[in-house]
Amino acid sequence: MLAFITSVRNPHNSTDYGRVERLLQRSLESVCSQTSPDFRVIVVTSRRPSFDVPEKVEVVEVGFPPPDSHKGSQISIAAIRRDKGTKLAVGVLAARRMGATHVMQFDADDFVSRRLTTFVTDRPRQEGWYINKGYVLYERRGLVKGVSDFHENCGTSFVLREDLYGPADLELDASQEAIYEAFGADVVTDVLGSHPNTLAHFAARGIGLQPLPFHGATYALETGENWSGELYPGFGWPVRPSLTREFGFPRPPLLPSIRSFSAFLTANARRRMRACF
User: Can you state the angle between helices 176-183 and 77-98, rounded to 10 degrees?
Assistant: First the structure.
């Protein structure tokens, strides 16, 4: 069984917590659209969502303090790693109690491929995979672009066999200090709380994760809650219906139709032609 785990930022460190919940709700809809039923989803949060979560989702509330005294989403990376890492560690503990063979962490505003569960459950002994091919979705413009360095910039990038997190065995209400001691600071900060060093972390231990052989996730940008801002500046394309089905992208008005985008290009071409005469 594949367990998807995510953490939700503390309301104190959010620009608009209502927006955070709306982003979480649609991400859960994406994750729960798997083609196989052999999965569960675990949400670790300081406040239970105000909406009804899907049947496959378990919410675990923790009493961790806000990671930073600053009000808003732009807080220090060290504070983010501590808060996110310890919450996701609780997610790993919950996944183990459910009997998960593999765990995939995802950011609570991203989208994942509906094929992941089938792919993973067909390979129960494999150590894990990383997503090097994915998409970025530009929220305000409703455009999408394929990228080949996905795992270097997005936390929704790794599917790991559950034992790779180490033998930690704690209650779900464990303190952050107990989590650091049980999992180890390197796992909490470099694997759960961050992602750029994850491949190197496991390679140093003789564990070679494999690239996922398809586009496995989509990084949502321009949400208003991104800590890192826009990592992939440039042009994108209108979202194809096949991608909407694959990842559960939101419907218009967030995403413009291909027809309206084509009309926009045609109108601009006509204006340029008139300017030539």
Answer: 70
CA angle 137, 4, 222 (to 5 degrees): 20
For 185, other C-beta atoms within 10 Å of its C-beta total 13
94 φ/ψ sector (left φ>0, alpha ψ -120 to 50, else beta): alpha
Closest alpha carbon to 164 in 185, 139, 182, 191: 191
Write out pLDDT tens, residues 240-253: 999 999 999 976 54
Burial category of 233 from C-beta neighbours within 10 Å (exposed 0-12, middle 13-18, buried 19 and up): exposed
Q: List strands edge to edge, sheet with 57-61.
A: 57-61, 39-45, 2-7, 102-105, 158-161, 128-130, 210-211
State the residue range of the domain holding 63.
2-275
Per-residue pLDDT of 92-145, as tens digits, reads 999 999 999 999 999 999 999 999 999 999 999 999 999 999 999 987 788 899
The three-point CA angle 180-45-197 to 5° equals 45
Domain CATH for 80: 3.90.550
The count of domains in the chain is 1
> How far is residue 98's CA from residue 5's CA, in Å, rounded to a whole number?
12
User: Measured between alpha carbons, how far is 166 from 257 in angstroms, rounded to an integer?
Assistant: 46
Among 246, 251, 268, smallest CA distance to 34 is for: 246
